[in-house]
Every structure is written in structure tokens, then in C-alpha cells.
Amino acid sequence: MTLYEIKQINIHVYLGQKNIHPVKDYNYYGMYHCPYRDDNNASFKLDYNKNLWHDFGTNEGGSIIDLVMKIENCSFSEAMSKLENNFTINSFSFHGNNFSNKIENKIECIIPITHPKLIEWVEQRKIDLTLANLYCREVHYQNQSGRFFSIGFRNDRGGYELSSPTGFKGCFPPKDVTIIGNNADSCLVFEGFWDFLSYLAIQKVEKTKHGVVILNSVANIEKAMSFLKKHETVYTYLDNDDAGRKATEFIQSSHSTVYNRSTNYTEYKDLNDYLCGKKQVVKQEVQKKKAGLKIH
Questions:
Q1: Domain match, 196 and 267 both
Q2: Domain count across the chain
Q3: Domain hosting residue 132, numbered range
Q4: Of 150, 153, 99, 93, residue with least CA distance to 121
Q5: pTM for this prediction
Q6: Among the residues of 44-167, which ranges form H helices?
């Protein structure tokens, strides 16, 4: 990455990934407690449009590189290296939050799940918020239709699987599976992250001793096979529909020991519906939602 590209990395996103959030959030800037010193007055300003920060307590400021040097107590070259290793061009756009020019697909902010509508939806899914925040984030993004936010689950190529209470399901590219390797002999397979979280909720644990593959779409089944073949035993928790059954059969045809756990919830479409007690019903065809919750 060039110096210019590194300086374009969104400071708001960088701080959000460190669980540092504005105390006061305005249209084009936010006020934070200073991330590198004691600060009770929230005297650290971040200009979203210019992607620059200023500490009114010490009268210092600058680019994201200057900020990393302060937070990490490191040199200019070390700060460059840290940013280059943690952010890639394919993960999201490095543009600031200036929406007056050409609209393009980009992630603006990745933070813990904090929006009341998303919190309410997590609770409706019977998932504890603390558990959801261990694996998911609130993702704010922009596309040709406007600015939106959804719950996001990171895949193995740095993309985010998106889901929102509007019924929207999508992906901020690239698309891929999510693998959690635990050096175990057994492996669990889920279609989506809600089913994975539901399994943890049912088991009353925050993590599992098994290896885990979240397909993020049954279309990704072949991408998971090399990982599955490293395990002696595979347990599938896929949907009770044609796509889920075909994916289960595909795994069974390629692996000697496969247990289809979807037979434990045959009256339910998937594991999250089982957790919520929502039995299958015949639904009329409805138009798929094309986006998450819109920011007006």
C-alpha cells in the first residue's frame, strides 16, 4: 500500500475496531475521550469528512498514521506496517465519510452492536447480546441506494455477511465461508451465523470445542470440503429445505462419518427457528429486501 492509501484508512473504523466510540456524534465529526491519555472531557475530535483528528487537550493532531504512533507508542514506519497488516484494499474502501461526491460501495464503520433496532432483533432471535457481540458487528455501509446498517459476520476473506430485521440478507464482498479451527477431531457445519449462534445458545456456551464451518451460503459447500476432510466426524446443522438436504447429502458422499443433526428439528426450517419455537409455515412469495436498515 502507498502512503496515500494508508492515510485514507477510515479513522472512525480504526477506532471502532478497538472498541473506541464517540461520546458525542455529529453529522460530520465526533468527540471522543482521547484514546492515548486520560481524558474526562472528551476533548478528542475526529473530522469524518477530512479523516483527520485533533486533541484539544494537547493541541496535537494529524492523520491516522500520527494517531497510531501515539496509541501504539511506535515509530512512523512501525505505524505504517501495523496499518498495512491490519487493513487491505479488498476489505473495504479507505474513503472518508464524504457523501457529496460519487456514491460507491463502501463500509463506513464497524462497531459493536449498539443500535436499539439491532439489539431488539438479536433479542427476538433469542440470542444474548454479549454472545452476538463476540462474533458479530454492527456494520454501516453505503451503496448506490443510500446508507444502511446491518448486523455483520466476518468471513475468511474479510467480507461481511449482512443481515437485518428488514429481512435483508447479503454480503459485503468478497464472499466466503467462515472457519473456526479448534484442533479437534470433530467439526460442526452451519449454513449461516444465526444458526451457529443458536447452537451456542442452546448449549449455553460462548465457544465450542469442535471445529466449525459456517458456510454463509450452501453455494459455498465445496470451499469447506478440504477443512471438513481433516476431521474424523462431521455434524451438520443445515436447513430443512431442498438446498440444505442437498448440501448434507453432498457432505455425506465425500466423508465417511457424517451425522445429520437437522433431523432433531424437522418441524423447523433451521436451528434458529427451533431456538425461537417458530415451526415451519407455508409462506407466500414475497419480494426480497435489497438492503439493511436505511440511515435517513
A1: yes
A2: 3
A3: 106-172
A4: 150
A5: 0.64
A6: 64-72, 76-86, 116-124, 129-135
- Work out whether strand 146-154 and strand 136-143 pair parallel, antiparallel, or are unpaired: antiparallel
Report how far residue 87's alpha carbon sits from residue 104's, in angstroms, rounded to the nearest whole number: 19
CATH number at residue 15: 3.90.580.10
Q: Is residue 260 part of a domain?
A: yes
The grid coordinates of residue 24 equal: 458525542
C-alpha cell at 153: 459476520
pLDDT in tens, 42-82: 999 998 878 899 999 999 999 999 999 999 999 999 999 88
Report long-range pairs for 206-209 (Cβ below 8 Å, ≥24 apart): 206/131, 206/134, 208/182, 209/182, 209/184
Q: What rounded mean pLDDT belongs to the chain? A: 85
**SS3 state of residue 125:** coil
First-residue to last-residue Cα distance in the chain: 34
The C-alpha cell of 169 is what?
440478507
